Amino acid sequence: DVKVTQSSRYLVKRTGEKVFLECVQDMDHENMFWYRQDPGLGLRLIYFSYDVKMKEKGDIPEGYSVSREKKERFSLILESASTNQTSMYLCASSSRTGGAFFGQGTRLTVV
Amino acid sequence: GNSVTQMEGPVTLSEEAFLTINCTYTATGYPSLFWYVQYPGEGLQLLLKATKADDKGSNKGFEATYRKETTSFHLEKGSVQVSDSAVYFCALTLNTDKLIFGTGTRLQVFP
Question: Is the separation of the CB atoms in B36 and B45 below 8 Å?
Fold first, then answer.
């Protein structure tokens, strides 16, 4: 069974903390993505990566950075967490033939 | 720019009713089109896809036909079940690039 695994289902962090969200895929996919999901706004792309050490900004990259040191792992970093980053974060991967597979999501609360 | 527009929910139906969730798109070029489903507390799952005009994607009784002339990809099911209650997302991708999502449509099916 193909799998995208996010390291945490639920996280609570304090304002100003540096937060790491980890995502691992076992499908040897080239593309990996980080989205956030908020009520009424759907899914918004934060960052994506086409290959190891490559990254591209999505629609809402401010306040976030990413790291892709290995093909199977794509990390999202909140440099200094703020309350407006409270959200559901979804990681996905896809091959070049299209169609993405998603992780279970991480619900992050910043207090 | 490229975008996806879905009908607003919630869509509320009785079991065995016919379902249509409308989706239209705007794209520069020829996109691939997808429907994803998100059950409560879970990540997104690929439901079906179509990669060229007049293709019909189908899965689990759901169908959608890629209509280039109307730039639409409406989701249909002949007889819904309570277990189909979920949020449905229409999405597109160009050149196997990032997925662009609609805002999602919540479906509620009552016995």
Answer: yes
Of A42, A99, A101, the CB nearest to B101: A42
- Taking only residues 43 to 82 of chain B, the set having a beta carbon closer than 8 angstroms to any beta carbon of chain A reads 43-46, 49, 51
Q: Which residues contact B13 (CB under 8 A, 6 or more apart)?
A: B19, B80, B107, B108, B109, B110
DSSP notation for B7-53: --S-EEEETT--EEE-EEEE-SS--EEEEEEE-TTS-EEEEEEE-ST
pLDDT at A99 > cutoff 80: no
Q: For chain A, give the mean pLDDT.
A: 92
B89/A94 touch (CB, cutoff 8 Å), yes or no: no
Best CA proximity match to A47, nearest among A30, A39, A59, A38:
A59
User: Tens digit of pLDDT for each residue in B14-72?
Assistant: 999 999 999 999 998 889 999 999 998 888 999 999 999 999 999 999 999 999 999 99
**Candidate from A31, A42, A101 with C-beta closest to B104:** A42
User: How confident is residue A97, by pLDDT bands cut at 50, 70 and 90?
Assistant: low
Which residue in A43, A48, A60, A89 has the most chain B C-beta atoms within 10 A of its own C-beta, making it the best mutation to test that interface? A43
Task: Give CA–CA dist A94/B10, Å, rounded.
Answer: 29
Torsion of CA A68, A61, B31, A70, to 10 degrees: 0
B99 and A92 within 8 Å at the Cβ level: the answer is: yes
Q: Which two tokens stand for residue A52?
A: 């190891």
